[in-house]
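Hey, resending since the last one bounced:
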Amino acid sequence: MVKPTEEAVLIVNGQEFRDWETVWVQRRWADSCTLFRFTAAERDPIFAAYGSSINPANFPSWTKLQFKPGDLCTVLMADQLAVTGFIESRQVAYNATQHGVQLDGKSYSFLAAKSSVQSKTGSWDGQNVLQIAQAVSAPYGVGIKVVGSLDLTPFTKLQNEKGELVWDFLERITRPRGVLLGSDERNNFTMVGEHTFAIVDQLIEGYNIKSCQCVISHADIHQDIEVVASAPGNDQLNMTAASEMTADAATQIAKVLYSMLIIPMEHPPTSQAEVQARANYERMWKDGTNINCTIVTQGWLRAGQVLWEPGDQVWVNSPMAMLNQAMGIQTVTFTQDDQNGTQTTLDLVNPEALRGSYNIDPGKV
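The structure tokens again:
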């Protein structure tokens, strides 16, 4: 009998199915949707005995798998909401004695992400990232959830490209504003600004870390970053001061060999402070790639109570990986199969890369 803490349930049109061979659900802090994949096989011994002469539609467990692409669904894991979305594809394989189905799906927010921006003029002059995100996602039934404090500096001049996808457009305008774009399990896009989260748990070598792979790299780190911009002149900002604006941001990571990156600003700025902010944001994104760590832990629940959540912060203590610090959860992958059992894979990065900082002594967690 499956433990309640290790059971995944797919609910489609009021029908529930629980008897899965494999379960795979991936929730991402900085992507357009959650992904899921389930496989099931008919294991009734009557199939083995009588083969293809048996009609599988006569058996309830097989009938429940008549789910099809386009069906709206809900995924529960350990009796907690993991995904609200839809089935995107269905694969069936069978022979005389075996019948198998694989269902792949995504959270509902993907429908907006893959759709084009609807705008009669394509102009978003004078609006900020939040106003624009709310307007372009609304026609597709996707909401906006704000985490932390956003840079709401309005764009003086901004146009979307004809046919540009909603997700591509929002990524293009949010990154220069230091806003991390993502999605949640309830059909929302998330817009993440600077915030402070408590450290929710510890991952400790030899205790609750089943396996670990850690990469510390300076491959995308530059000692200096310079942003160059050109602004329309006005009474306060004109001539060379407007046409040749620059701002620098140096890395805070020690022992970086000298290299420099020059970035043209994507949109005309309204002040020197805006150019400096763009340089600071690029520094944050670049330095955030310094550490990438993948940790596997047993089960789906953190502390045996709640599902692991992307965006949460944990303290990682792994001497072999040279880590004893706070890390942010970028991606959570829940899996279940007959080889590895029930486990969770956490992809961790510097909290700053997720726009977070922490506010708790790890010794008190």
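Residues 224-287 form one domain.

Sorry for the duplicate.
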